[in-house]
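Let's see one such:

===
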Amino acid sequence: MKTSSITVEITFTQPLLATASGNAELQAEFIASKAPTKEAADEEVSTVPVSDQIEKASTVFHRDDNGLFLYDYTWRGYLKETIGHMCELGEFKKLSKWTHKRAVDGSIFVKPRRIYLQRGGKNLAEPDDTIQRPLRATTMQGDRVALARSECVSEGTQCQFTVTLLESANTKSAWSELNMDLLRQCLDMGAFKGHGQWRGGGWGVFSWKEIVATNGPAK
C-alpha cells in the first residue's frame, strides 16, 4: 500500500469563527452520536470551555492547557466538502456526490489530532473577539430570526497539519481519482470558501503553503 503526504501551513486571511457548541449538554449529545468511541466523545466534551459567561447560543473553540485548537476531523470535513463541490461541477469521471464521502473517509487522513491555532509561532490561549449575527429561517409559521454568537480569532492566525492519502492501485476504482494534486486544489479553494462557522459569508478564508511532501509505503 502506497501513501503520499503533505504538511501544510494555513494562514487565515479573514477571521475564523468557532464551531463547537457553548451548550455543554447539546455538545455532549451531538458528539456522542458521531464519535467512534465513548473515550473520543468524552475527550471532545472535556475540551469545550465551561463558563457562566458563555451563552448557550454561542459557538466556541476547543481548548486545553496548550491553547485553542481544531480537531483533525474538521479539516477532513473541509476536504470532503470541497471534493463534493467538485463532483457537482463534473470534475470527475468516476467519483460522484454519492460515492465521494466513502472514498474520502477511507483514504484521506489528517494529523495531529489537535491542530493548534497560532500567531507569531505561539499558540493562542484565548479568542480575539466574539461575533454576533442574525440567523434567518423560513418555517411553517413564517420567517424566524435568531441571534448567533461565535468566538473568533483574527486574520493572520495560522495552523499546521499533515494530510496523508492512501493511493489506490486499482485504476478502475473511483478512489483512484483521489490524488495529491486534487488535495492541493481543495486547499486552493480556501481562498474562496473558508473554514469554520459562517464560511458561506466569507469568514475563515485562507491561503496555504506546502512545507513537506513525502511518498512511501503505508506504516
